[in-house]
Amino acid sequence: MTAAPAPAIDAEDRLRADLYDYLAVLLTAPPDQALLDRTAGLTGDASRLGQAIEQLAQAARGTTPQAVTREFNALFIGVGRGELLPYASYYLTGFLNDKPLARLRGDMAKLGIARSERTSDPEDNIASLLEMMAGLIIGRFGQSAGADVQQDFFDKHIGPWADRFMTDLTQAEAADVYTAIGALGLAFLEIEREAFRLTS
User: Fold this and answer.
1) Cα–Cα distance between 111 and 145 in angstroms, integer?
2) Closest to 124 (Cα-Cα) out of 78, 85, 163
3) Tens digit of pLDDT per residue, the chain (200 long)?
4) Which bin fits 30, alpha (ψ -120 to 50), beta or left (φ > 0)?
5) What are the counts of helices (DSSP H) followed by strands (DSSP E) for the chain?
6) Beta bridge partner(s), residue 125
7) Quick one: CA torsion of 158, 159, 160, 162, rounded to 10 degrees?
């Protein structure tokens, strides 16, 4: 007996997953020259998301890997700590490694999501959460998760705080390219939230 083929992922969901993954990559580490070059070639449209893409492409054209690395370090690493702490626990409770992280770990176990061995960061880092969301959409942890599972994960672990983080990123003193990344994140999260609202 052969297993039933996995359901096809439609083009819109593939694009959603790609944007989640793209934001995750940009928030995991500073982009290298190849990623800056690809980003510089992006084009948008008149929508809020399209304008954010244009803004990011322009920012990528005006920077270097060295400059964006200094920016990333000032924002997220710093001496002792960076300007921003990109963790759900911190944004929701004011403390690191708090209840939001414990709840996330419980949901990760239910969904078959294992902690990455490539990082020592807590799993409630914004980049990790965006990567998990992409994985749920495209079936990286098994079969593609249905819209209800995606919405539940978004509503519990991204929706309550990620907008505030992205807003802080757009206003951070050390941000330049990351101002545009924050604007792109805000525009995308708004679209996701509205889409979930319309389908629930």
Assistant:
1) 9
2) 85
3) 444 445 578 999 999 999 999 999 999 999 999 999 999 999 999 999 999 999 999 999 999 999 999 999 999 998 889 999 999 999 999 999 999 999 999 999 999 999 888 878 999 999 999 999 999 999 999 888 999 999 999 999 999 999 999 999 999 999 999 999 999 999 999 999 999 999 87
4) beta
5) 10, 0
6) 87
7) 60
Contact 97, 103 (CB under 8 A): no
Sign of the alpha-carbon torsion through 57, 24, 27, 117: negative
Tokens, residue 152 = 């539940």
- Which two three-digit tokens encode residue 137? 């959409």
pTM score, whole prediction: 0.94
Q: What is the largest CA-CA distance in the chain?
A: 60
